[in-house]
Specification:
By secondary structure, the chain is of the alpha+beta class. It is built from 5 helices and 12 strands.
């Protein structure tokens, strides 16, 4: 196997990002949040609002509020179940017999809230297609050697059901395995990559799949990646100190639709061209910042164009 050299990057931002502190949320706020999970570690114990520890919990709201701000019973469980199981490899875990949402009077209270968890299924299909590296970012809290922008940006990675190929790499035997996420899902430097769905539409399902994959070449681990959705990958690199962001290329008609959405939002002033130029990328960055949960999001060198971002703009992902 021909090895690729590890890459370092100089990555700078003009602001600091913040992650939701789940411990500060009320029970209602926690149950309806797509960033936090209300959990009961043991029967009879107090509830705790925590950051998700299972990828299926990310983007999952345990309870749904109706237009008047009340829990949407009796349909809340059905909505939450459909939202959970729309993601491959996830299953809805119904609430315990004595669970009682806050603000309601129940015969008994204190059972575990509903949840969304991985099934442990081995039937997941590895990502496939041609992806282009569009950005390389340091991992928050990990020291890296800072040098000029690497040549890796623009390189192509081709993934199939049983193989991986990229420039300078040869391998006779690949083994692809499912793994837990190889990176910190709450890294603020991935805020745009992990952008959630529109939070004002109950049926606006999350487009993220969030499956982890390991690629082993002839018995030796080559790389690990997070499949964010069908068009975006995050690849752990340089011993976990860097993340490579890879995307599938957009079609010209998709770019035109993006530009029209940006014009409507008064973020783009040129005529739609179908070309993903710097002006378009800068406008996309401003759009994404307005939809991130952080109060002070990063301005990224190249904002990642995920399925959730396309959906927010009203652009089909294919």
């Amino acid at each position: 196997m021909t090895r690729l050299l590890a890459i370092s990057i100089l990555f700078s931002t003009n602001a600091s990002a913040q992650v939701t502190d789940c411990s500060t949320l009320s029970q209602t706020g926690c149950l309806t949040s797509t960033e936090c999970i209300l959990a009961q570690d043991l029967p009879g114990k107090a509830y705790q609002c925590k950051a998700p520890w299972d990828t299926c919990q990310i983007g999952f709201a345990q309870e749904v509020l109706d237009d008047s701000g009340h829990f949407a019973l009796p349909n809340s469980w059905r909505i939450a179940s459909e939202q959970c199981e729309a993601r491959e490899g996830c299953t809805y875990v119904s609430s315990g017999a004595c669970y009682c949402p806050p603000g309601l009077s129940c015969i008994c209270g204190g059972g575990p809230p509903p949840d969304c968890r991985t099934t442990g299924s081995t039937s997941l299909t590895p990502p496939s297609g041609e992806f282009v590296i569009v950005d390389i970012r340091s991992v928050a809290g990990v020291a890296t050697t800072q040098i000029q922008t690497p040549e890796a940006i623009g390189k192509t990675i081709r993934l199939g059901a049983d193989a991986l190929s990229m420039d300078g790499l040869g391998c006779d035997e690949w083994k692809i395995e499912t793994i837990a996420s190889p990176m910190n899902m709450w890294d603020p430097l991935l805020a745009d990559v992990l952008l959630g769905p529109a939070d004002d539409k109950v049926l606006d399902w999350d487009k993220r799949t969030l499956n982890g994959w390991s690629y082993v070449c002839e018995g030796e681990r080559f790389l690990e990646l997070l499949e964010v959705d069908s068009r975006v990958l995050v690849i752990s690199w340089a011993n976990g100190s860097l993340n490579l962001i890879a995307e599938k290329a957009l079609k010209p008609e998709q770019i035109e639709q993006i530009q029209k959405a940006l014009i409507d939002a008064k973020l783009y002033s040129s005529d739609p061209s179908g070309v993903l130029d710097k002006e378009t990328q800068d406008a996309i960055s401003r759009w994404a910042e307005g939809h991130m949960s952080s109060d002070a999001p990063y301005r990224f060198f190249r904002t990642t164009i995920t399925e959730n971002l396309l959906h927010l703009m009203g652009v089909p992902d294919e």
